Amino acid sequence: MTTRSRSLWETVAANVRAEAARRGYTASSLARELGMNRSAVQARWVGDRQWQLEDLERVASLFVMEPADLLAWAPWGSNPQPTD
User: Fold this and answer.
1) Which residues lie below 8 Å from residue 24, measured CB to CB, with a gap of 6+?
2) Is pTM beyond 0.70 here?
3) Residue 7 pLDDT
4) Is the separation of the CB atoms in 16 and 45 below 8 Å?
5) What is the DSSP annotation of 39-84?
6) The pLDDT value given to residue 47
7) Cα(8)–Cα(77) distance, rounded to whole angstroms?
8) Which of 23, 35, 42, 46 is surrounded by the most beta carbons within 10 Å?
9) Which residues contact residue 12 at a Cβ distance below 8 angstroms, ignoring those fewer than 6 apart?
């Protein structure tokens, strides 16, 4: 079996989702906090659209982390997401 490599933007989307989940944010609540349209954040959340650098700076600031941390690659499954 071959493992598909993630693109940078898939990595960013996965990192934003994981960090948001750790902090209790949904795509909708993140959109509210960022003052963005919910559908725009949702498209970025699932990787259909790319996060813009300015938006990543705002997300990182909200999460109290460096923007570069949202770009860091980690193997699939290494970003645990909380379950209900």
Assistant:
1) none
2) yes
3) 86
4) yes
5) HHHHHHHTTSSPPPHHHHHHHHHHHTS-HHHHH----TT-S-----
6) 87
7) 16
8) 42
9) 50, 51, 56, 70, 71
Q: Rounded to 10 degrees, what is the CA torsion of 26, 62, 7, 48?
A: 40
pLDDT at residue 84, rounded to an integer: 39
Q: What six digits make up the tokens of 30?
A: 């993140």
In this predicted model, what pLDDT tens digit does every residue of 25-74 receive, in sequence order?
A: 999 999 999 999 999 999 999 989 999 999 999 999 999 999 999 998 76
Tell me phi and psi for residue 68, to 5 degrees: -60, -30
Alpha-carbon radius of gyration of the chain:
12
